[in-house]
């Protein structure tokens, strides 16, 4: 059985999409998974799985030194569960994952899957930051939360249950009805939020994700990191061209991929920048 698992890991094809929040990671993942060569989870992110055994860590920035055999095995097995059923029919299946917080811990992710392929998608910062701000103030459905809760490791369940109740209570009594926290948690995010406005926190979130992932990309290239760069603007304006290039990057250029691109449009380009106030733009520019 141990040999079988090792062989499965060797042919497992993880495809990790990297990008700051609201940069197009969702639409890219969904478009790829409209093809028979790609599959994913039934929720948008699996941050709980990546953070297995690290729930008490107040940040999403995970140190490689904290990665042990137990954590690695849990993460790999989570990918295998998604992959194994389909792989019996088609060994070209890629398991797509797009947790935005991975921008803060690329070295950790790469340590788990050194043979994975990565796509980094980047969007105009003002558009991303405006959209991040809207999500901090947005409502989250119970159905959405339940889909993600299915993948909470049992060892971490008590902690996340208490945190969820605490966050909902804080949002309920908040004057602005915003969440106490949303998205990737950089180090000391709560301290930063208390001292700064929401738009500054969103800008800091974008900045930390972008700077850290781009720095790690430069470092990890020498260690064999396989990565494809893409901009949100190019993708929504020329999806067929971008998808053809991704096909070549993944070694699927001789395969026919029937991606569904009919819902992709570039109507959101510039939307954030056009809706931000001049004060908000100044605050953002100081941070990014």
What's the SSE blueprint?
Layout lengths: L1 H10 L2 E5 L6 H8 L5 E2 L7 H4 L18 H19 L6 E4 L8 H7 L4 E6 L2 H12 L5 H8 L7 H17 L15 H7 L2 H23 L5 E6 H6 L1 H11 L21 H5 L2 H10 L1
Parallel strand pairs: 1-3, 1-4, 2-3, 4-5
Question: Which properties best describe this structure?
Answer:
288 residues; alpha/beta; five-stranded parallel beta sheet; disordered N terminus
Explain this structure to me?
By secondary structure, this protein is an alpha/beta fold. The protein contains 14 helices and five strands. The chain has helices at 2-11, 25-32, 47-50, 69-87, 106-112, 125-136, 142-149, 157-173, 189-195, 198-220, 232-237, 239-249, 271-275, 278-287; strands at 14-18, 38-39, 94-97, 117-122, 226-231. The longest helix has 23 residues, at 198-220. The chain is globular. The chain starts with a helix and ends with a helix. The model is unreliable at 1-7 (pLDDT under 50).
Helix content: 40-55%
> Can you count the beta strands?
5
In the sheet with the most strands, the strands line up as 2-3-1-4-5
Number of helices: 14
**How big is the Rg?**
19 Å
H/E series, N to C?
Answer: HEHEHHEHEHHHHHEHHHH
Spatial separation of the terminal alpha carbons: 50 Å
Helical/strand content category: alpha/beta
β content, as a range? Answer: 5-15%
Overall mean confidence score, pLDDT: 88
Largest sheet: 5 strands, parallel
Low-confidence stretches: 1-7
Overall shape: globular
Structure in a nutshell:
The protein has helices at 2-11, 25-32, 47-50, 69-87, 106-112, 125-136, 142-149, 157-173, 189-195, 198-220, 232-237, 239-249, 271-275, 278-287, and strands at 14-18, 38-39, 94-97, 117-122, 226-231. It is α/β, with parallel strands linked by helices.
């Amino acid at each position: 059985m141990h040999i079988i698992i090792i062989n499965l890991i060797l042919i497992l094809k993880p495809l990790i999409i990297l990008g700051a929040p609201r940069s197009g990671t969702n639409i890219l993942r969904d478009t790829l998974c409209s093809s028979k060569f790609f599959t994913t989870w039934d929720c948008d992110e699996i941050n709980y799985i990546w953070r297995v055994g690290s729930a008490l860590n107040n940040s999403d920035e995970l140190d490689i030194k904290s990665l042990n055999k137990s954590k690695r095995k849990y993460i790999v097995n989570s990918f295998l569960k998604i992959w194994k059923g389909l792989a019996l029919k088609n060994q070209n299946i890629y398991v797509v994952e797009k947790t935005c917080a991975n921008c803060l811990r690329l070295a950790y992710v790469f340590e788990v899957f050194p043979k994975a392929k990565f796509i980094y998608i980047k969007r105009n910062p003002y558009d991303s930051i405006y959209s991040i701000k809207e999500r901090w103030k947005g409502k989250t459905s119970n159905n959405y939360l339940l889909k993600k809760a299915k993948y909470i490791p049992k060892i971490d369940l008590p902690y996340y249950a208490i945190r969820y109740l605490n966050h909902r209570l804080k949002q309920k009594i908040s004057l602005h009805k915003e969440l106490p926290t949303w998205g990737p948690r950089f180090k000391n995010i709560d301290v930063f939020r208390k001292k700064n406005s929401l738009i500054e926190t969103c800008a800091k979130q974008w900045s930390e994700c972008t700077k850290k992932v781009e720095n790690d990309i430069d470092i990890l290239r020498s260690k064999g990191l396989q990565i494809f760069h893409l901009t949100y603007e190019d993708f929504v304006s020329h999806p067929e061209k971008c998808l053809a290039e991704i096909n070549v990057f993944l070694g699927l250029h001789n395969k026919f991929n029937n991606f569904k691109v009919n819902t992709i449009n570039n109507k959101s380009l510039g939307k954030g920048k056009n809706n931000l106030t001049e004060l908000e733009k100044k605050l953002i520019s100081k941070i990014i």
